[in-house]
Every structure is written in C-alpha cells, then in structure tokens.
Amino acid sequence: MVTALKKSQADDPPSGLTAFGLFQREKRSLFGEILDWMLTPLLLLWPLSLALTWWVAQGIAGKPFDRALEHNLQAIVQFVSVKGNKVQLNLTGQARDILRADESDLVYYQVRGLKGEHVSGESDFPTPNDETEPIPGKTLLRSDTIRGDEVRIAYTWIRAPGHDDALLLIQVAETLAKRSTLATEIIKGVMVPQFIILPLAVLLVWLALVRGIRPLNDLEQRIRARKPDDLSPLDETAVPEEVAPLVSSVNDLLDRLTTSLTTQKRFLADAAHQLKTPLAGLRMQADMAQRETRSEEIHRSLQLIARSSIRATHTVNQLLSLARAETTGRTLPTASIDLARLVTEAVHDSFPRAMDKQIDLGYDGPESVPPECLMDGNPTLLGELVRNLVDNAINYTPRGGVVTARVLVDPFSGVQILQVEDTGPGIPENERDLVLQPFYRALGTNVDGSGLGLAIVHEIAQQHGAELKMEDAHPGREPPGLRVGVRFPNRTKPTVE
Description:
Elements: H1 2-11, H2 30-78, E1 80-83, E2 86-89, H3 93-100, E3 107-112, E4 118-121, E5 140-146, E6 149-160, E7 163-175, H4 177-212, H5 214-224, H6 244-291, H7 295-326, E8 335-337, H8 339-356, E9 360-364, E10 375-377, H9 379-396, E11 402-409, E12 416-422, H10 453-463, E13 467-471, E14 482-488
Parallel strand pairs: 9-11
Antiparallel strand pairs: 1-2, 3-4, 3-7, 5-6, 6-7, 8-10, 11-12, 12-14, 13-14
Helix pairs in contact: 2-4, 6-7, 7-10, 8-9, 9-10
C-alpha cells in the first residue's frame, strides 16, 4: 500500500486533474487522489478569481470618474440660462477648453431646450430611454455609445424659470480609457502576487501531503523490518487516529494467523507423534520376522504387521478427516440432508466390525426424515461425523456389548438429535471437555486409538451450528456407558468464513 503511495509521487501528473477523468492511472494512489482533490479546486477557482477581480476592479475604477463626471455636469448646469422662450449656454471658451482638456478620454456634452431642440454641444448625442418620469434636479448615470465609442453619460433634467411644465436636458459623456487603465492597474496589483502565491501554495500542499502520509511510510518500514516469524500486534498508538482502524484490522488478522499457525504446528507435532508409534512397531515386527526361521512365528509376525498397518491407516484417515473438517469444510457445497438415512447407511457399513467383536449394533429411529425437517449441510462432513461416532462406540465397547444409534426428530420445530450410546467404560465428567481436543485419550482405557474421533465430531458439529453433549448412558451401572448427542437446529448450514 505504501509502496504505491511512494510510486505515485514520481509518476502522477502534476496537473491535479485526475479527479475529472483527464488522466487515468492504471493503479489507484491515495497520494495522487488526495493531491487531485486539493489542487483541482484551487486551479479551477483561480480563473474564477481573475474574472471576479476584473469585475470588482471595474466597479472600483468607475466610481471616482463617475463623481468627476457628475461634477462636470453640475458645472455646465450653472452656465445654462433661459430668457423668454430661448435657452442659452453661456459657456466661455476657456471653460469649454477646460471641459475638453483630457489626454486620455474624449468629453462630450449637450444641452436641449424647452421643446427638446438642440441648443449646444453635440447634436448626435443619444437620448435617454428612461421609462419613468424625469425627476428635476436628480443626476443620473448610464452607459451608451457615441460615434462608435463606449461612453459613460451623466445627465439631469432642470426646470426652466417661468416654464413650470418644461424641462431642460443637460448631458455630459466621457469615454472609458482612464477607467480601463485604472482597472488594469488594479488587476495587475492583485494578480501579480497571485502568480507568485499560486505555485508556492501548490508546493506547500505537496509538502504537507508528503508529511501527512509519512506515518504510512513509517508503518511500512516497521512492517518490512520485522522478522518472518514475528506476528506480534502492531502498535496502534504510533499511528494517526485515521490509520488506527486499519492497524487494528491488521492486528486481528495477525492474531488469527498466529492462532492458525499454532494450531497447525500442534497438529503436525501430534500427528508425527501418533504416527511414530505404529511405524516403529511395524519396523520392529518386520525385523523380528526376518530373524525368524519357523513358519509359525513368521506368520504371527505378519499378522502383527497387518494389524499395525491397519491401525496406522486408520490414524492417517482420521488425520485427513480432521484436516478436512478444519479447513475445506467451509468451502464444500451444501445439500438437503436426510439425517435418518445417513445414520442407517453408517450403521450398515459398520456391521462387519461389530460382528467381529460380537457387538449388538442397532438403529432406533425413523426410516427417513419428513421433507419439511430436512436440514442443509455438507454430506461429506456429516457422514464423517456419524461414522466417527459409531466407530468410536464400537472401539470402546467390550465384546458382547450393545451400541445403538438413534435419530430423534421434532416435527414442529424441525430440531433433530443424533444419539450414539454404548455399554463401554464411558468418560468421566471432568474429562469430557478434554476429549474434544485432538489426540487426547481418556485415562484408564486400554483400547487402541488416536484420540481424534470426538475431536472430528466436535469440529464438524461446530461448523453446522450443532450442539454436542456427552452423558452416561446407564447412570448407576458399572460400566456406565456413554451417550453422545448432537443437536441440530432446523435448516442448519455450515459456517462460512
């Protein structure tokens, strides 16, 4: 993750426009995306700032010149007089020259008489198109065009002495050169510093972002510096608050990985220990058979070898079953399971072993489960569960004993209970939790076994959400026997992680 961040600093386009799809990265970069969303608004707002500054500068530059134009208008009004029905502008030549004395702009004026006739000034002066009734003595401003030049016009209406109903129009206009020059100067004064500040702001954003993601780089270095077997949790206090949930998730993963590796190591160690004994016995019996010369002793050694090989094969098969239950069971497909039919098949397959030990093996329950009570499960794992319960009962039941497999179904709730009971020595109450651990065998038993049967049953039951319970089959008797019950909830499914 952090490697991608470092790579983006050299490969990402500096324009900051990826957020709008102008640049497409093959690999997402946190550094690049944050930089995009910080710089893109800045680069887009800058032209908007230029336009807004120009508009404001135009308004600021126009105000002093508007006041000067109004002053000129009032000066001309002072020279207007009315004699009888004749309007006169007594503007001296010197005053007219002063009015028009401007190095940058042209100044126009006009005076109209009682009937709107031209009295003085420019005759082609545009007429105001005010829709409202003129207000005598009020100075108004407007923008217009004279002889192709944009101008700013100040105009007013005055009441003629002795003519209450007649109004005189006086107008003064000025081109916009000085206004544009002042506005340009204001723009230059504002924008030149921005050309310096903008690259500096981009640089500061870049440096701040590099510093902001430095904790991720430090975290990467700490992880890379670890030894391969170091799965200890990362220090959550050494990272920023925003990264702490990620570190916490990584710590949870490391904890699960540590548990998994510990379980695997223990499993491998126990499996090696369990296989060592039958393999050593096989080797010893093979050596003894080689030394024997009598056919009877050789035959007896071969029988022992065959028995040891069967025991070793059984142990290996149980190890494979346990491994399957702990790992692949989460990914195997599910199907509707008829528990009664599954148990009857397992009992039928176990008849030869039971007959060899003269054990009365039977089944007590319905021939099939009602369709509405079928449960969802993995047929392979559930088959392993039933076979291990039946095999375990046969293995620990003495000759002439009784083993019964039973299925109980509640048609109302759909709950199903599998019970396998025997007349063996049973398991003391204080050891019933311990026998669920792989390779643990109850004390006082002299039966050959690997200690995996109930561990396999417990693992498969957990994956199907079932509850495992052990109790004495015949309380008060000696031996008490053992009854193992597995309670399946309605429509159970294997756990998927």
